[in-house]
Structure formats: C-alpha cells, structure tokens
Amino acid sequence: MTPVARQEVLGLYRRIFRIAKKWQSASGQMEDTIKEKQYIINEAKTVFQKNKDIHLPPLGLAPQRGRAFRNQEKLRKLSKPAYLRSYDEVS
C-alpha cells in the first residue's frame, strides 16, 4: 500500500470512530445509542481487519492534461475486458 493510500485509509478509520463517538440513535433511547455506537465500532474493526491485505493500485483522478492523465487513461483502457474494448471501438 502506498503511503498516501495508507494515510487515506487510516483517516477514514479515524473518521468512522469520531462519528461513532458522536452518534445518536434515531429513537433517542440511551441504550439504543450505546448499542448502535458499539455496532459501528465493531463493524469498522471487522471490515478494516478483513480488508487489510487488499492492495489496489492508486486510481485517483488526475488533472485533465499532462502525463499522469495519459498514464491513467492508458491503465483504464488496459483494464477493460476484451468484450468492452470492442464495444468502444464500434461506438
């Protein structure tokens, strides 16, 4: 995982915990709020732990011009299945 992607993932993880900390249940009941907060925390821990070994290439949006954009477009074209490539050539 690239350092930038790692920072984004950790930032998302922290943000989820901040949201859970401030969470209020729709019913307004304290015990419902506590259960929902705990559910959010447990679910975040489970999902992030489960997906810790996933390594995806960075696919952020590049500016509309320049080398980064051309490289990104090239990667996008290469990643398309063959049946979709032939569809694009016709249309």
From TrEMBL:
Family assignment from sequence similarity: Belongs to the complex I LYR family.
Entry protein name: LYR motif containing 1
InterPro entries linked to this entry: Complex1_LYR_dom (IPR008011), Complex1_LYR_LYRM1 (IPR045294), LYRM1 (IPR040330)
Taxonomy, superkingdom: Eukaryota
Pfam families in the record: Complex1_LYR
Source organism of the structure: Terrapene triunguis
GO cellular component: mitochondrion
Complex 1 LYR protein domain sequence ranges: 7-54
